[in-house]
Design brief:
The chain is an alpha/beta fold. It has seven helices and 28 strands. The chain starts with a helix and ends with a strand. Bound molecules: adenosine monophosphate (AMP) and magnesium ion (MG).
């Protein structure tokens, strides 16, 4: 059985990020949120596009106003009004100024803006009551970004700030990586879909829905293959379909001690190479990982059936895999923070233990609260609102309330 750290190394090294031409698609800016940019963006525009004013005020020639003061104002003749979005017509000469507003183009001849708070208006004249600095409140063309250079690199995720940049740069067709395809199947004769009346002994297949939601949340495309009976032929057909159509396959159930040889044999009969079948983690000991020597290099994860175990192993191992596969350059690794626990946290000390609950930031300090109710890995009800898992390493059997604990953000 592998330690969590060993398992992490083995699993993360299996991932080949998408990088082929056929993995790239073009999307419109309005649907690009969350996608991973596949080629760098070079803008044709300078930012700012033209010299413009950073203030409401008056566009002047610096030399005309460098001595101005309350006692000895510089008096200038107003020759034009320049609102934002308007092309100035004038060429400012010594002794002249133009009324100008934030974002408006600087008129020719002027080099400095005096903010209106430091002026007094009298008809077609303006009194400058304080000397500005040379070129003050002028945003110069190309001061932020020069056209023709790289605006955004490949491998970044497109979120609101990047979308803003792309919109401003008029880049509306974007080359992004396709979403990783993740096939999900649930195994078990006892399982039924949520819409069916429950017969005695039956259990609703919640894992299918939970895993599909998680896959979508981290940018993947979920292929829900449904419930597969615990029968070798049915399982073999389903796994075969999955590995042929997906980058990652998630099955849940059927990998605990009694059944595991059976799944392993099916994987092998389909050409799979078993990389591991257990990890010293609680919840979540059974974890089968296999790869297949096919063009689409699928990675198979046989997750435990218990709903909490399935999610814990997903968060710990599968989520980083989907993100790494998506070709995101940074930030695919799991994120751990140090938090103060509000509850006593305990473990048998034998396996690395993950306790689900909520992380919050209180007065600048991360605090962790364990979920209330039963800590059984069969209890999925108290999973609601989970956003973190506290980690107790092997050999650590107790962390008292108030003490520091490492927490995985999910
Ligand atoms: P297994 O790993 O197949 O032995 O399943 C362990 C436990 O998890 C059993 O109680 C199953 O009924 C339950 N279980 C397995 N698959 C699912 C699923 N897809 N959704 C909810 N519970 C499941
Ligand atoms: Mg089962």
């Amino acid at each position: 059985m592998h330690s969590v750290k060993e398992a992490e190394n083995i699993i993360f090294n299996l991932v080949k990020p998408l990088n082929n031409q056929q993995d790239i698609e073009t999307v419109d800016l309005s649907t690009a949120t969350g996608r991973i940019l596949a080629s760098p963006i070079i803008s044709k525009l300078d930012f700012p596009h033209w010299d413009n004013s950073a203030m409401d005020g008056y566009a002047v020639i610096y030399q005309d106003v460098e001595q101005a003061s309350e006692e000895k104002p510089a008096v200038l003749k107003l020759i034009e009004d320049i609102p934002a979005g308007y092309q100035p017509q004038s060429n400012i000469q010594p002794g002249e100024a133009a009324r100008i507003f934030t974002g408006a183009i600087m008129p020719k001849g002027a080099d400095t803006v005096v903010m209106q708070e430091n002026t007094r208006r009298d008809g077609s004249r303006v009194f400058i009551l304080a000397a500005p600095k040379p070129q003050e409140f002028v945003r110069h063309r190309a001061a932020y970004y020069q056209s023709g250079t790289e605006l955004l690199p490949a491998g970044i995720q497109l979120n609101a700030p990047e979308i803003a940049v792309l919109a401003a740069a008029q880049c509306t067709n974007l080359k992004v990586y396709r979403r990783p395809r993740v096939a999900i199947l649930s195994t078990g004769n006892e399982l039924v879909t949520p819409d069916k009346p429950l017969q005695p002994g039956q259990i609703v297949d919640s894992n299918q829905y939970a895993l599909a939601a998680l896959v979508k949340q981290c940018g993947g495309e979920a292929l829900m293959l449904g419930i597969i009976k615990d029968e070798p032929e049915a399982l073999k057909d389903a796994i075969s379909e999955a590995i042929n159509n997906a980058d990652i396959v998630l099955s849940s159930g059927g990998v605990s001690v009694g059944d595991y040889d059976y799944v392993e044999k099916i994987l092998e009969s389909l050409g799979g190479e078993i990389k591991m079948h257990a990890v010293a983690m609680k919840p979540g000991k059974p974890l089968t990982v296999a790869t297949f020597p096919m063009a689409n290099t699928p990675i198979y994860f046989g997750l435990p059936g218990n709903p909490v175990s399935a999610l814990a192993t997903y968060w710990r191992f599968v989520q980083p895999v989907i993100k790494k596969l998506s070709s995101i350059a940074e930030g695919w690794q799991p994120v751990f923070v140090k938090a103060q626990t509000r509850d006593n946290l305990s473990s048998n000390g034998k396996r690395e233990t993950y306790i689900w609950g909520r992380l919050s930031l209180v007065d600048g300090v991360y605090q962790f609260s364990a979920a209330g109710g039963s800590k059984s890995s069969g209890n999925l009800i108290n999973l609601a609102q989970t956003n973190a898992l506290a980690v107790l390493k092997v050999g650590k059997s107790l962390v008292n309330a108030g003490e520091e604990v490492e927490v995985l953000q999910v």
